[in-house]
Amino acid sequence: MTPIDYIVLALYLLGAVAIGLLAGGRQRDADDYFLGRHKLPWPALAFSTVATETSALTVISVPATAYTGDLWFLQLAFGYFIGRTVVAMLILPLHFRRGATTTYAFLQERFGATARRFASVLFLVTRALGDSVRVFAASIPVTLLSGLPYWQSILLTGAVTLVYTYTGGLRAVVWVDVIQLVLYISGGVVAVFLLGGAVDGGWSAIAAALPAEKLSVIHLDGGFASGQWLFTGLVGGAVLSMASHGVDHLIVQRLMAAKDLRAARFALMGDAVIVILQFALFLAIGLGMFVYFGGREFAAPDEVFPAFVIEAFPTGLAGLMIAGILAAAMSTLSSSINALASSTTLDLYAPLTGRDDSVHLMRVDRAFTLVWAAILVGGAILFRFASQGTPVVVVALEVASFTYGGLLGGFFLGMFSKRAVQRDAVIGIGSAVAVMTVLWSIQQFGVTDRFVNGLWYALIGSIVTVGVGVLSSRMRGGDGGDASSSPGTSTSSLGSV
Length: 497
Known about the structure:
Blueprint: H1 3-24, H2 30-35, H3 42-53, H4 56-68, H5 73-95, H6 105-110, H7 113-146, H8 150-198, H9 202-209, H10 230-246, H11 249-256, H12 261-292, H13 304-312, H14 317-353, H15 358-386, H16 392-416, H17 422-444, H18 457-476
């Protein structure tokens, strides 16, 4: 990097803090801090949701899938669209019942406080593990491009993010996310133009030089073990999207900040469309780089895009692209810190202590914001040293995918089963997590060849949760157990099992 690139990067970091502080404004109470007083416009929430679910890994890895393969990833994008549509119709209304403040309030309303706490703890543990690794992973391209040591990249990302997240709450996080999305998408657009200029004949020549198989989107072969199989993308991706956007507090918190259900639905479906366009952009970059590099092999696929930035981005624009990668990392980190802190405060602290004073809860949440920031940044630094030949990084990256099914299944159990009570829900969710842990371990550690792709984990976990929950309720007998175990049976009016 040149001095100009460093100046561009510094200006971005200072600008992100300034925008966050200005957008956050003065936080008066918990509703302001957690949900922006439900006054955030749906386009901003749509942009923020995309930025939140887009880590630096996405910016680097999506082009790599097209470089090493073809356009199969678009199947997954359309699966995501299907899943978000189901969430908009079935699950979002549950989050807008009776002024709920967290994703897991429905589980308390339907089953009881223990079910809510159990789901919240599951979210906290898996999110902390997964996002610690994502912060570490984001430091890899930043270190490669800037020359900063890993620990400095991690601390820089964490410190800048913490300033506006702590001060401005969700409102600051959302508006900075909007800027960050625009920034890294702009970096992608710049890459497209540079590729067109770097190859004689521009993009028409790139298209002509591509082998026909590089333009394939639909794959009808492969089966359950393949991520490229059409049904893995459409069905597995749809259910995974239902879990991530329906029961993961990281995403749902943004949707709950909309002024009403209609606005939340607009935000969610706007997110679905933007994700498809975003995937198409970065896949096109991957195809362009295939022609630019002549199909050259790299030590790892994720090195392709950073290599292109080093070779082809002029002074100043390289700093912009690094800022874009940092932006993707910071949007994930800020959202994770905010969601972890709010879930800890509202799902665990407030019910256990009986404190419901809004100003007090905001102060407690800020304290938890500092705690979770330290955990995520510290975890990322530890993963840097633990990544040398040990599976712990891979474990943390995939753990969320097989806990999603338990959480989504818990919601389905509450929606469609009148008989199920709190004990059935907890047993069902716990069984799903146990089964998915065993399944993942069998495949991960070579006990057998991989026979099911990770994109199917959410569906399998949901089926296990509902199946075990229903079986438990029928073995118990009766109409639904004691009233204390099933405080909200009216929410199951969507159907019964």
